[in-house]
């Protein structure tokens, strides 16, 4: 089992910076997923910004969440000392 999401920071251009339970940070660009019907509400930047870490994954109001394994496996490792792009 892959590590789970411990915290999330919303960055510009539909990007999430995720910290996992193993201490790793990964960045995931969510734009490719926004045409999937369940994620279409996330196209609204204000709604996207409501992302929060919950139950080991990222969730939004209305029961929208994302598979934590995909978040980990598809995310790009954040190099040590690399801060937010916000």
Write structural notes for this entry.
This protein has 86 residues and is mainly beta. It has a single domain (5-77), classed as 2-Layer Sandwich (NE0471 N-terminal domain-like). It is 13% helix and 34% strand. The protein has two helices and seven strands, in the order E-E-E-H-E-E-E-H-E. It has helices spanning 45-48, 68-74; strands at 5-11, 15-20, 25-29, 52-54, 57-60, 64-65, 76-77. It has a four-stranded antiparallel β-sheet with strand order 1-2-3-7, covered by helices on one side. Strand 5 (57-60) and strand 6 form a beta hairpin.
Short characterization:
With about 90 residues, this protein is mostly beta strands.
Layout of secondary structure:
Layout lengths: L4 E7 L3 E6 L4 E5 L15 H4 L3 E3 L2 E4 L3 E2 L2 H7 L1 E2 L9
Antiparallel strand pairs: 1-2, 2-3, 3-7, 4-5, 5-6
Descriptive tags:
four-stranded antiparallel beta sheet; 13% helix; single chain; globular; three-stranded antiparallel beta sheet; 34% strand; mainly beta; NE0471 N-terminal domain-like; 86 residues
């Amino acid at each position: 089992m892959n590590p789970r999401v411990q915290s999330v920071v919303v960055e510009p251009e539909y990007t999430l910076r995720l910290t996992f339970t193993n201490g790793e940070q990964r960045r995931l660009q969510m734009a490719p997923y926004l045409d999937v019907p369940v994620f279409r509400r996330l196209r609204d930047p204000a709604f996207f910004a409501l992302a929060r870490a919950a139950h080991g994954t990222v969730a939004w109001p209305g029961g929208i969440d994302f598979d934590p394994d995909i978040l980990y496996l598809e995310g790009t490792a954040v190099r040590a000392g690399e801060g937010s792009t916000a």
